[in-house]
Design a protein that fits this description.
This protein is mainly alpha-helical and 240 residues long. It is built from 8 helices and 3 strands. It has a 3-stranded antiparallel beta sheet. The radius of gyration is 18 Å and the shape is globular. The protein binds manganese (II) ion.
């Protein structure tokens, strides 16, 4: 078992222990990375997955203190909000009282998108850069012209998200190509039916401790900690 495999195995074990659930491997790829790392527990609730590496594993690009706050506090709050919205919608179904459904649907979209994007975010970073699969290379080339052109677009689009949000690389089945999208907050500006395969969180909580207002510097650092093995596997899953 090399270091990479050890990290992957440890991550899965850690996630399984933290979640305490039997279905932890659902959605896992043979490589061990898993986008849907948390799934539901036996009570039918969403759970916060363990980070798939140590809090300091992305130093010096992304600092340990930011990772701790971001994962343990911010991501956890989205899981909590998603469970609350899910419960309230179930109650509305039971009672037939839909008077607050607009509110809970908004909560469901915000916290659900927040939870799922953070799962993908932790997954698409890592202490090792990995390698882009030939298929990912081909899709990047046919969609953007070259990897350098993709990088320029992704960095510019992500830097210019207005307010809190995300830069997203997604697979779009209608064109069988990749697209770069911005998301405001977690859920706005979505292009439905696309499947994100690489995301960069640009909420201030993701970078302000270390980078303050220098969002572009943070994004440059983020590009150094992308795990291309994971992104390649996310593309495979999106296409299939
Ligand atoms: Mn975040």
């Amino acid at each position: 078992m090399n270091k990479r495999e050890f990290l992957r195995t440890s991550a899965l074990l850690g996630a399984g222990l933290a979640a305490g659930v039997a279905n932890i491997s659902r959605g896992a790829t043979p490589g061990g990375f898993t986008y849907n790392a948390s799934g539901l527990n036996q009570a039918g609730e969403y759970v916060l997955p363990a980070l798939p590496y140590a809090y300091n594993a992305l130093e010096p690009y992304i600092d340990e203190a930011t990772m701790k706050l971001h994962h343990d506090i911010h991501h956890a709050s989205y899981v909590k909000g998603l469970n609350a919205a899910t419960k309230k919608i179930a109650e509305a179904l039971d009672s037939g009282d839909f008077s607050l459904i607009k509110h809970w649907e908004r909560e469901l979209a915000f916290h659900g998108a927040g939870h799922f994007l953070h799962n993908l975010f932790w997954n698409n970073m890592g202490p090792s850069a990995g390698k882009r699969s030939q298929k990912l290379e081909d899709y990047i080339t046919k969609s953007f012209g070259s990897f350098d052109r993709f990088t320029a677009l992704f960095k510019q689009a992500t830097t210019s998200v207005e307010g809190s949000g995300w830069g997203i690389l997604a697979y779009q089945p209608e064109s069988d190509r990749l697209v770069v999208l911005q998301a405001e907050k977690h859920q706005n500006l979505t292009q439905w039916v696309t499947t994100p395969i690489l995301v960069c969180d640009v909420w201030e909580h993701a970078y302000y401790l270390k980078y303050q207002n220098k969002r572009a510097d943070y994004i440059t650092a983020f590009m150094q900690v992308i795990n291309w093995d994971a992104v390649s596997e996310n593309l495979e899953r999106a296409i299939n």
